[in-house]
Write a structure and sequence with these properties.
Helix 2 packs parallel to helix 4 and helix 5 crosses helix 7. The chain has 7 helices and 5 strands. It has a single domain, classed as Rossmann fold (3-Layer(aba) Sandwich). The chain is about 50% helix and about 15% strand. With about 190 residues, the chain is of the alpha/beta class. Strands 2-3-1-4-5 form a 5-stranded parallel beta sheet, with helices on both faces. It is globular.
C-alpha cells in the first residue's frame, strides 16, 4: 500500500519525478483505488503523453508537447463537466516538460507559462515520488534496458546537460522538480515508495 495524501476534490492527478522513483507504481495504485471507489479512470502513461525517451530528440517535440498538453486539458475540462465520477491520472506532464525541454525560446516560454496558469485554475494535484541519493544509481539508470538506442540517449542527455554521470544528473533533475513545484504554486505532495 502507498501512503497517499488526501487528494480532496482534485480529479486530475499528475505524477512527476525522476526515472525509477516509482511513478508507474503510483499510477497503477491510483487507478486501482479510484476504480474501486466507482470512478471512471483515464490513466495516461508517459509514452501516451509524448514523454517517452524515444521522443526526446525529435525536432519540434516541445511545440508538439505543448499542443498536446492543451488538448489533454481541453478533454479533461469537458469530461469533468459531464461526469463528476471521473479522474485523470497523468504520468509526467507540466514539470517534466520544463525539465526535459531542450530549449525554451520566448514563444515556448510564453506558451508554457500560459499552460501553468491554466493548470492552476483546474482541480490538479501533483504526486512526486522521490529517491534518496544512494537509491538513484540503482533505480534510475534502468540497467535492464539493453538497447543501444537507450545507451546513446543516456549519453546524449549527460553531454547536453553537462554531467559526468547519471546519478549527478538525476539528483539535479529531482531538485529541479521540487524547485519548480514550489515556484508554480500547484498543490503537491512528496512520496516515498
Amino acid at each position: 500500500m502507498i501512503n497517499l495524501p488526501d487528494l480532496g476534490e482534485n480529479r486530475i492527478i499528475v505524477i512527476e519525478g525522476i526515472a525509477g522513483a516509482g511513478k508507474d507504481t503510483i499510477q497503477s495504485y491510483l487507478a486501482e483505488e479510484y476504480t474501486k471507489k466507482g470512478y471512471l479512470v483515464y490513466s495516461f502513461s508517459e509514452d501516451e503523453l509524448l514523454f517517452s525517451w524515444k521522443h526526446a530528440w525529435m525536432k519540434g517535440i516541445e511545440e508538439m508537447r505543448l499542443d498536446f498538453m492543451n488538448y489533454i486539458l481541453d478533454y479533461c475540462e469537458k469530461t469533468l463537466k459531464e461526469n463528476q465520477k471521473v479522474v485523470f491520472i497523468l504520468n509526467r506532464f507540466h514539470v517534466s516538460f520544463s525539465i526535459l525541454a531542450k530549449f525554451m525560446d520566448e514563444n515556448i516560454s510564453r506558451r508554457y507559462n500560459q499552460l501553468i496558469e491554466r493548470i492552476k485554475s483546474m482541480p490538479v494535484y501533483v504526486c512526486v515520488p522521490t529517491l534518496e541519493k544512494h537509491q538513484i544509481e540503482a533505480r534510475s539508470s534502468h540497467k535492464e534496458r539493453k538497447e543501444k538506442a537507450w545507451t546513446a540517449h543516456q549519453q546524449k542527455r549527460l553531454e547536453t546537460r553537462g554531467f559526468n554521470n547519471l546519478t549527478e544528473m538525476y539528483v539535479w533533475e529531482q531538485n529541479q522538480v521540487l524547485k519548480l513545484l514550489k515556484e508554480q504554486g500547484i498543490p503537491y505532495s512528496l512520496l516515498k515508495i
